[in-house]
Amino acid sequence: MINLIKTTIGQLRILAFLEGLSFIALLAIGMPLKYGYGMPGPNRIIGMLHGLLFVGYVFLVIQAKIEYRWNARKTILALLASVIPFGTFWAEMKLFKE
């Protein structure tokens, strides 16, 4: 686990997983509570967390593109994965293998 954190790709894999979890939490918990039950509080918290993780994910994708000399296709797929539910889980398994 320690070696995974030391590399950009390892950090990206961890962040991709966390960003994917936060996206699912936002869609499955935050949005229903806000729009179904009029409880915007949890949505604000989950939304803020997801936003921070999303920005970190995009930053690390760009850093990995430069460091590992990814081609445009791989970079675009990695970025698209962040806006599709379960996309970052796919990216972590298929795109970010060391």
Automatic annotation (TrEMBL):
GO terms for cellular component: plasma membrane. Residues 11-95 form the DUF3817 domain. InterPro entries: DUF3817_TM. The chain crosses the membrane at residues 12-33, 45-64, 76-93. It holds the Pfam family DUF3817. Keywords: Cell membrane, Membrane, Transmembrane, Transmembrane helix. The keyword Cytoplasm does not apply. Its main location: membrane. The keyword Transmembrane applies. It is a multi-pass membrane protein. It is found in: Cell membrane. It comes from the Bacteria. NCBIfam families: integ_memb_HG (TIGR03954). This is DUF3817 domain-containing protein. It comes from Arsenicibacter rosenii. The lineage of its organism: Bacteria, Pseudomonadati, Bacteroidota, Cytophagia, Cytophagales.
